[in-house]
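chain below, 398 aa
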Amino acid sequence: MLKIGVIFGGESVEHEVSVITAVQAMSFMDTDKYEIVPIYISKDRNWYTGEALRDMKTYKDLNNIGKVAKEVVLTKSGEDYVLLKKNGLFKGVVNTIDVAFPIVHGKGVEDGSLAGYLETLGIPYVGPSMLGASIGQDKVVQKQVMGASGVPIVNYTWFYDYEYAEDEDKVLKSIKELGYPVIVKPANLGSSVGITVAHNESEIKESIEEAIKYDKKIIVEEMVKNLLEVDCAVLGNGETMETSLIGEMITDNDFLTFEDKYLGSSGGKNGAKGPKTGGVISTGGFKIPADIDKEIEEKIYKAAKDAFRCMELKGVTRFDFLVDTKAKKVYVNEPNTIPGCLAFFFYVPKGKKYTKLLDEMITLAVKDYKNAKKKVTSFESNVLSTYDGSSGAKAKMQ
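prediction:
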């Protein structure tokens, strides 16, 4: 039986969303195949493990986590990946894991930081690689990569906070060239945090100031006419890719807000209950399947796969799309490389239950790990055994 270390939380404005997603996912994992080891990263970056972390009630007061869970560090010891007790006189192994399953959202964890640490340890892990996660977190870089690969994107401009402070008029001029209304976003956040719409010049400064609260890098995008917002998920590793059904966003706002995504009460026929989540898992403000014609549907499926491939993504990624229904033009808005609820509700109406989706994600991670082990990563010879660099270094400095 594989031991799956589910890692969640982190120092991110999406901390709570990560907790919700992870606890839900752990409730649906196949316990006949996997032993689940919860690993929670607190807002001050301390790591904890313990069975209490699988229950949502534990998070009513985050200050009590240390009383019900053990503080640990994840490291490698021989061929094992171990959770060592961090504090106390008698440090020892608290638990071991075979595969890491990061279910994290936002800057500092989903942006490649955690994936890089796991790659350094050499442990198999679910989800995007360090490169894919890094690209997927930065709304500017991802558009540059997609644009260079021929994936359809909207017109945009971007700038740093210090550039806006030094030359406000230049930044405002570039935004005006896009044409109002525009949508203003922090470049490295998700879950719609810090995002606003500016309908004219009198609103743009306030929108920029809101975005700057969260990030130093800001992106401003044109608003698509005759707009329909839809989402489509992709499951795979680039070599194999399975698209989900397409979901239409349901909101009374200019875009799907944080409240629409996580504080709604919808569940419907596509919702599901987890034994310890305390309620229905929301479909996140989506109508699934979306009411769109075949031509638009095919364009969305192609663009989703093209974007998934060019960004080197793995696991499950949910792509946000902007559709001009009159012109029948499709634009990839952005990827969610570790989406809320892992986008399971896009696959359930297709016949793939959440438990099956999680199982396939873990299987993909193990397969990719085994394939990577076949590649040459180091040489048998040790050039340092015959290298004397001291004299050479002195010679170069003289």
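The chain has a mean pLDDT of 88. The chain has twelve helices and 18 strands.
thats it, cya
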